[in-house]
Amino acid sequence: MATLAVHHAETGWLGRYIFSTDHKVIAKQYLLNGLFFALFGGIIAMVFRSHLAMPELELLAPERYNAFVTMHGTLMIFWVAMPILLGFFGNLTIPLMIGARDMAFPFLNMMSYWTFFISSVVIMSSFFVPGGPFAAGWTGYAPLSADGSLSGVDWGVNLWAIGLALEFAAVLMGGINFIVTPFVLRARGMGLMRLPLLIWMLVIASLLFMLSVGPLIAGAFMLLFDKNFGTHFYLVTAEAKGDPLLWQHLFWFFGHPEVYVILIPGLGVICEIFPAAARKPVHGYKHIIYATIFAGVLSFMVWAHHMFMAGLNPLAAVGFSITTIIISVPFLVMIVAMGLTLWGGSIRFTAAFLYALFSYTIFIVGGLTGLPLGAVVADIQLHDTYFVVAHFHYVLIGGLLFTVASSERFHLRLPRRLSSSQ
Predict the structure, then answer these.
(1) Of the candidates 272, 309, 401, 420, which lies 20 to 30 Å from 89 by C-alpha distance?
(2) Any idea what the Cα angle at residue 79 is, between residues 25 and 268, rounded to 5°?
(3) Confidence band, pLDDT 50/70/90 cuts, at residue 1
C-alpha cells in the first residue's frame, strides 16, 4: 500500500495544540468539544426533568420548556454523539491501527474540526438571540418549525438550521478521511479482511452518513426558504399548499441511518475490547463485517416506521414494518458473535472490559425494546410514550456513554502502549 510521508513540524503552541493537523490532537479536540456539550445538554435535561417532577416551582415557562427539550435532543445527537463516536474514535484509532502516520488529508482533517467548532458557536449563540433557541422539537417537524409565529421563535430557527448544515459539512470532511485512509494508507500486507473491526465500523458509518445526509441538507435549506422568503415547501396557506410530511420523509431518511452512524462505531469498540479481554480472536470476523454492511443497506429502507401515525398507506406501513423487523437479524448476528468471543476465553476483568460489557448488555435491552416499535399495531399504541424515550436512551447509553468510558480506558492508552513497544 501507499505510504504517507507526513511530518508535523514544530510550529509553536498554536500550530501544535490549536490548529494542529496531528490526528491525535484533533481527536482530543473532538472529545473535549463533545464532552462540553454532553455536560451542557445534561444540565438542560436536569432542568426540564426537575420541572416535570416539581411543576409547582415553575422552573420553566412553557415556551422555554419546549426549547430546552428541543436543544437537549439536538445537542446530544449532533454535538455529542457524532463528534465523539466519529470524530474522536476515527481520528484516534484509524492511523494507529492500520500503520499509517496520519490521515490521508491532514489539512482537511483540521478543517473538519474547525468547521465543527464554528457550528458549535452558531448553535450556542441561539440561546442569546431574541425569542430564544429553536423550540419545535429536535426532529424539527414542519409546519411548527417553518412558521415562527407558531413556536414564538425567529432567529433560533435560522441558527438551528445553519448550525446543522455546518456540522454536517464538518462530518462529511472527516468522513472523506475515514474512508480513504484505510483503503490507501494501510500497512503493507494488511488486506481488507485483516483490518480491525473498529476500522470497518468507522468506514461503514461514514459511508452511511455520506449517502443519507444530502436530502436533509436540502430539507434544511427549504426550511430556511419557507421561513424567510415565503416559499411553500412545507407550509400550507390560502395561496399555496406545501407538504408538511415532506420534512418528515427527508428527516427520517437521514435519521434512521444516523442511528447506525452513532451505534456502529460503539459496537466496533466492543468488538476490539472483548477479544483483548478474553485473550482469543473475535468470533465470526467476516460474519460481523457482512452483517454490518447488510444492516447499513437495510437502514435506508426503514425510515417510515417513525411515521406510522402520519397517515401512511397501510400497505406501505406493512412493508416498512417488515424491513424494520428484518434489520434486527444482522444485529443479532453481531451480538451472538460478541458473546461467543467471550465463551471459553480467559477473561481479564479490566475496567475497559467491564464498561464494554455493560454497554453490550444495555444495547441488548435497547434492541429488545425496539422490536415492538417495528410492528404497526404496537407502535400506534406506544407512539409518543415514554416507552419510545426509554428505547432511544437505552440504545444511546449503550452505544455512547459506556463505549466512550471503555474506549478511554483502552484506546486513549494506545499511543502510549505503541510508543513503549518501539
Answers:
(1) 420
(2) 70
(3) low
Distances (CA, A) of 129 to 134, 157, 158, 296: 10, 11, 11, 39
Q: What is the mean pLDDT of residues 378-386?
A: 92
CA atoms within 13 A on the CB side of 85: 36
Q: What is the pLDDT of residues 220-238, one digit of tens each?
A: 999 999 988 888 899 888 7
Check: CB of residue 84 under 8 Å from CB of residue 34: yes
Cα angle, residue 138 at apex, residues 135 and 144 outer, rounded to 5°: 50
Quickly tell me which residue has 432542568 as its cell: 47
Q: How far apart are the two ends of the chain, measured CA to CA in Å?
A: 22
Q: What is the pLDDT of residue 57?
A: 86
- Apex 81 CA angle, 410 and 333, nearest 5: 70
**Interval 96-129: pLDDT, tens:** 999 999 999 999 999 999 999 999 999 999 999 9
Q: How far apart are CA 85 and CA 34, in angstroms?
A: 9
pLDDT digits (tens, 9 = 90+) for 172-186: 999 999 999 999 999
Instruction: Please state the pTM of the whole predicted model.
Output: 0.92
As a whole number of angstroms, the distance between CA 405 and CA 356 comes to 8
Q: What kind and span of H or E run contains 372?
A: none
Q: How many CB atoms sit inside 10 A of residue 5's CB? A: 7
Q: Are 331 and 395 in contact (CB under 8 A)?
A: no
Q: Give which of 134, 155, 133 is closest to 145, Cα–Cα.
A: 134
Average the pLDDT over 8-12 and give the result. 61
Cα–Cα distance for residue pair 195/202, rounded to 1 Å: 11
Q: Where are the alpha helices (DSSP H) in 54-154?
A: 62-74, 82, 89-98, 106-125, 148-151
Residue for cell digits 419557507?
A: 226
90: nearest Cα among 36, 40, 29, 4: 29
